[in-house]
Design goal:
seven-stranded parallel beta sheet; alpha/beta
Length: 239
């Protein structure tokens, strides 16, 4: 069976690097993002066929049209990777920044994940991959909407995974939780253990191949994840 994947958020960062690796593995790709010129440039680099569509995932109508368009262009799809995301350092709690984050990371993500889940249920198999964050584990004083939105992503994926295990175990749902990766999203002071996007993408592709339920990227961030989970509130709030 020919391998076919749609990647939302393929214009830069993690999605861009995952696209290159999947194409090298023989995938036909659907590439979606707002910045079409970057997608076209990526398409010219890829060794296998790729289709390009502009998509602003904050608009639900866009999501459905683009998703269905790719399915028609490609004659079906086996894998959907949702890498689109945004976030701000927002100490002043400006509402527009919080709203933009929620519109993309919550509303847009849920729309795409739901589209993929319904499609794969009809198809009777498939794989959904969502990019959340280590930030999903705790709140953030500097970027409250970002961490909260990534907690939504992880929780939503867990719910969809539980549903699929009950109704159709042939459908895999993977939650990818990166630490700091060298992309436009790596913002703030004192960031550490920053992984190149290429290395993060390689580990994500391995998680896809192994059909993991969750993958913390890169591996050393498992230490931070464990510390964050067990750290008492009084200590976390003093950091």
């Amino acid at each position: 069976m020919m391998k076919k994947a749609i990647i939302f958020g393929a214009s830069s960062g993690i999605g861009h690097e995952v696209a290159k690796l999947l194409s090298a593995q023989g995938y036909v790709l659907g590439l979606a993002a707002r910045r079409v010129k970057l997608l076209e440039s990526l398409k010219r680099e890829l060794p296998n066929e790729a289709f390009v569509r502009m998509c602003d995932i904050a608009r639900a109508d866009d999501c459905e049209l683009v998703f269905n368009g790719f399915v028609g262009d490609m004659g079906g799809v086996n894998l959907v990777v949702i890498s689109s995301g945004t976030g701000y350092i927002n100490d002043e709690l400006e509402w527009q920044k919080e709203k933009d984050t929620i519109d993309v990371n919550v509303t847009g993500f849920a729309c795409l994940a739901g589209l993929a889940a319904r499609y794969f249920l009809d198809k009777n198999e498939g794989h959904i991959v969502g990019i959340s964050s280590i930030g999903a584990l705790r709140g953030s004083r500097e970027a409250p909407a970002y961490n909260a939105s990534k907690a939504f992503v992880s929780n939503y994926l867990e719910g969809v995974r539980c549903k699929m295990k009950k109704v159709n175990p042939r459908i895999t749902v993977t939650d990818v939780m990166p630490g700091f990766v060298d992309t436009e999203m790596a913002k703030g002071d004192g960031i550490f253990w920053v992984a190149p996007a290429e290395i993060a993408a390689r580990q994500i592709c391995r998680a896809i191949q192994k059909k993991k339920a969750r993958a913390i990227i890169t591996a050393r961030w498992r230490i931070i994840a464990a510390v964050l989970k067990w750290m008492p509130d009084w200590l976390y709030c003093r950091l």
